[in-house]
């Protein structure tokens, strides 16, 4: 799944994690301030960032783009040389770097929009006041600024989606070429055609989607946690608790951690059931396909037994999804109200303006949703785990290894694969 596309996957990804942590550590210790030595200093402390397109070209942002490019080139050139025999390095190394940067830039767009919310919200509330001095031009100017940011957002999104589509297909092509080169050894494996044709496509697409979502979540946290930390100075006492330093910051972390552990606990059985579902469906489909050309196959007793396996697994899956969805939906609905709940004393006390409230809601929502990566992606993760199990069993059969434990729960009975009783 990975070694067909990435060079030496275990070493590649472990070195990527180490290099990333090192780069982040250098940035937050000396790197950010180093830009001042080359004429790209950070914004003075207490200075609000520019509202509009100027936000993207502040000296500190330009220095970060340069720093990111430098770190990427060092890492990429090292692996380009080390894995010169891998035909997919241009996509797996440089393509991944482009996706990471475009994801980071999308987070920057979100920050730019959040900066815009305060002046727009305050202008809106000012217009409601008696004897308001707000003019029509004030709104139009702010709307024009938003349109400029939105245009950048649309452009980045379209280019990224176009590139990602090609990236995913290249990854699928790498897996397809690898499996087809061993077709004479795998053609007799159950569901070989489905695994090569369908599972490779779904695995590459879902892995890329989850990977980008994870990167986006991490970068959103890095970008918005300081914002939430700073906005906490406007917050009054917490309901039933009282004053807590940086209340918004800690509330977002604790609430999101609670949701993550809750959903992980109640959904722990779902990946195995989804995998079993793939297997019983494959066994049923396989018998029907044989029955198209062989009158002795797909006989009513056999088909009935195979379909009973399908029905039993689906009913079991429906039951476990029942309580999972109850927990998930209750948490999501509570999440919609949680931030307002902790802001009630602050709002009633008149300690924040409407513009600051909009910034808090956006920043809290971004941090909360990032911490809730598992909550928001759990169903997709379950599907990916199911596909991964199928492909791992496939590769184990290719390499003559012992099948994973869950595969050994399936036995050959009367020429048909079914769940062992």
From TrEMBL:
Keyword terms? Membrane, Transmembrane, Transmembrane helix, Transport
- From the record, give the transmembrane residue ranges: 12-30, 62-81, 93-113, 142-164, 210-235, 247-268, 337-357
InterPro entries (UniProt xref): ABC1_TM_sf, ABC_transporter_sub-D, SbmA_BacA
- A Pfam family that the UniProt record links to this protein: SbmA_BacA
The membrane topology noted for this protein in its Swiss-Prot or TrEMBL record is:
Multi-pass membrane protein
- Principal location listed in the UniProt entry: membrane
Q: What is this protein called?
A: Peptide antibiotic transporter SbmA
The scientific name of the source species is Shinella curvata
Q: Which gene encodes it?
A: sbmA
